[in-house]
Amino acid sequence: EAQVTQNPRYLITVTGKKLTVTCSQNMNHEYMSWYRQDPGLGLRQIYYSMNVEVTDKGDVPEGYKVSRKEKRNFPLILESPSPNQTSLYFCASRGLAGWGGELFFGEGSRLTVL
Amino acid sequence: KNEVEQSPQNLTAQEGEFITINCSYSVGISALHWLQQHPGGGIVSLFMLSSGKKKHGRLIATINIQEKHSSLHITASHPRDSAVYICAALPQGGSEKLVFGKGTKLTVNP
Hints:
The complex is a heterodimer of chains A (about 110) and B (about 110). Chain A has about 110 residues and is mostly beta strands. Chain A is about 0% helix and about 50% strand. In chain A, strands 2, 4, 5, 6, 9, 10 and 11 form a 7-stranded mixed beta sheet that branches. A 4-stranded antiparallel beta sheet of chain A has the order 1-3-8-7, with no helix packed on it. Chain A is globular and about 35 Å long. With about 110 residues, chain B is mostly beta strands. Chain B contains no helices and 11 strands. Chain B has strands at about 5, 10-15, 20-25, 30-35, 45-50, 50-55, 60-65, 70-75, 85-90, 100, 105-110. The interface of A and B includes residues 44 and 102 of A.
């Protein structure tokens, strides 16, 4: 089954404690991306990757890091989380053959930073 | 700066009604996505289109590139269609920076 898997789905942490949200897709997609969703602000792109070792900033990259060492995985790293990073996070992927295909989203990771 | 505006923000309908959700964007795009998010949070891609019209079951999406406008139509609406519908524009130029509308919350009453 084609899917994007995020872990953890729910996490409560404290300010400054490094955490990683993992994202894995089984569709051999080139493109992967991270978004955060906040009430009143909608979805905003954090980082995206066009392929292995190719990453770029989205609209709200501050406080986040990513890496793309393997095609299937695109972890989101919060080196020193702060309360303003409390949000619902989504990972997505899509193939880039031709001019592109539909987006596949993970189920979301709800992060609370105290 | 590319902006994506959706209307209406909220929409309440009776079961069976024809629904239209609109999406306008300010710059040239290469494609536009329509997404659905049910209560509980999961997001599903409904359509990606760059021209014309696509249909899937009771859902129809249209786009007019010259007018920078797209619509999502739902025929014979059903309570299970209750969700937030989000459009997202992919600007021209090879960037993969999607620009999202803030969503339209649809409630279909039985």
